[in-house]
């Protein structure tokens, strides 16, 4: 086990590893099952707190996330926009798409920067933003903020996991992943509770509306 970990530590400084991290975080935007966050956390644990290598991991993850998000945006802007345009003017789908367009233009930046912490949220939001033709410059700005903050978050999970378990790197990786899953779970729980509260409020207002 130790020899395998030593080999991984030697490989982690190779430029190929940074290209792999770039590719994983890019593909994750289109295929959410790709373990991009796991790869970033693992890499950060294995470099044992070396600042230049941590910075390189952060840069590779940030650039990969940006590339993947923009690819997803372009896909949505192409096929998605054409499908939305074919909906009849008075249809429910057209009304829903127009609502999504207005909502994203009002608070799209917040949605984009936070969606990557929700399972599958990153793909859904970037495709939808392309489909409703969210302004590319605003998309780039907020996506840069979201990608950089997510990459920093993943690197820090690995860094602190590595510090806590310096003699047991595998435990450090597991600790980082556990923290990530915990944060994701709390965000998803908060989102569901908020949605449930909104439904109750709408139902309550509907019950009080005079007929």
- Helix count equals 8
Tell me how many strands there are. 0
- Report the span from N to C terminus: 72 Å
Order of helices and strands: HHHHHHHH
Question: Mind explaining what this structure looks like?
Answer:
This protein has one domain (2-208). Helices cover 82% and strands 0% of the residues. It has 8 helices and no strands. The protein is globular, with a radius of gyration of 20 Å. It starts with a helix and ends with a helix.
Give the topology, please.
Elements lengths: L1 H10 L3 H13 L8 H11 L4 H35 L6 H24 L5 H11 L4 H29 L4 H40 L3
In short:
The chain is an all-alpha fold and 211 residues long. It has one domain. The chain contains eight helices and no strands.
Features:
8 helices, single chain, mainly alpha, 211 residues
